Amino acid sequence: NEGWLDSIKWIVKVCESFNKIHSLKIKDDFITFLNSADILTKSHKSKESLNLKDIFVFPKLKFYDGEEIPHKYDSERLKLEILKYKKIIIDGENQSGKTTLCKVIYQLYRLLGYIPIYLEDENKFLGNPIYKLEKNFLEQYENASFNEFDLDRIVPIIDNFHIAKHQEKYIEQYDSFPKQVIIVDDIFGLNIRNQNLIKEYSKFKIREFTALERNELIQKWIRIKEDAQLQINPNHLQQSIDEKTELIENSLGIIFGKGIMPSYPFFILTLLAAQDTQKPLDSDITSQ
């Protein structure tokens, strides 16, 4: 009887914990951030405001094995296998879509019953790492206390970690979180003398879009315009999208295929927006 009672108490505790996590509500302003297309929000002439889901295409990744040799990795698998990788480091070049990937991973963990906490700090992540995590938790979730949840359900997602001044300090203090995601611009450029600290991290790199992902992104862009037109034949719609996709890919493919511009979503969408609106999105970024 005592054994059964212990089992029932344990089941009740697990159910209460699950219900508490499930009922946790993300604040509206942070939901807006997660769904935002950022600088591209006003870039499409057929839709007043773009959401992230309107234009997001999962990038391909490279996976580094134990010998630090990169292998191709279909990032769609990450949606299915993310719980397989406990601690993750993802690197990517400027404008490769690192922050966007953070947003998608955040929502993925939330759907799986975890409590992701997004951290980004332009001030080199100075200060107490745990305090910063608690502060961001309170900014992102409603009516809850950081300390009422088990650490194994909390997932720190640290964006632009390469600018952190005391990287080892963060790695050491976050060691108690079994799952975490760290975003950097170069895995092998991290300022960590004790490499054993990151030995257990699974390492990935964001790859440039191939013609296949570029095609999918262009189709999404065109579909926004086509869907905005009423009373159109569905068959004609798909034919129109296919024809326009081929036309655009033939011209853009030269730019990206010859390495004139890196084949990342930001640059592809910038060119598509410029083609549609004849308006520069941002003088600083487009000139760069």
Give a written overview of the molecule:
It is built from eleven helices and seven strands. With 288 residues, the protein is of the alpha/beta class. The chain has a seven-stranded mixed beta sheet with strand order 2-1-7-3-6-5-4. α8 crosses α9 (234-257) and α8 (211-227) runs parallel beside α10 (265-277). The radius of gyration is 22 Å and the shape is globular.
Write the layout of secondary structure elements.
Elements lengths: L1 H22 L4 H8 L16 H4 L5 E4 L5 E4 L2 H6 L5 E5 L6 H14 L3 E5 L9 H12 L13 E5 L8 H7 L6 E5 L17 E5 L4 H17 L6 H24 L7 H13 L5 H5 L1
Parallel strand pairs: 3-6, 3-7, 4-5, 5-6
Antiparallel strand pairs: 1-2, 1-7
Biggest β-sheet, characterized?
Answer: 7 strands, mixed
Amino-to-carboxy terminus distance:
72 Å
Helix content, binned percent: 40-55%
Question: Regarding quaternary structure, how should these chains be classified?
Answer: single chain
Side by side, the strands of the main sheet go 2-1-7-3-6-5-4
Uncertain stretches of 5 or more adjacent residues: 280-288
Strand content: 5-15%
Rg over CA atoms: 22 Å
Number of strands: 7
Number of helices: 11
Mean pLDDT: 83
Structural class based on helices, strands and sheet pairing: alpha/beta
Question: What is the ordering of alpha helices and beta strands?
Answer: HHHEEHEHEHEHEEHHHH
Dominant shape: globular
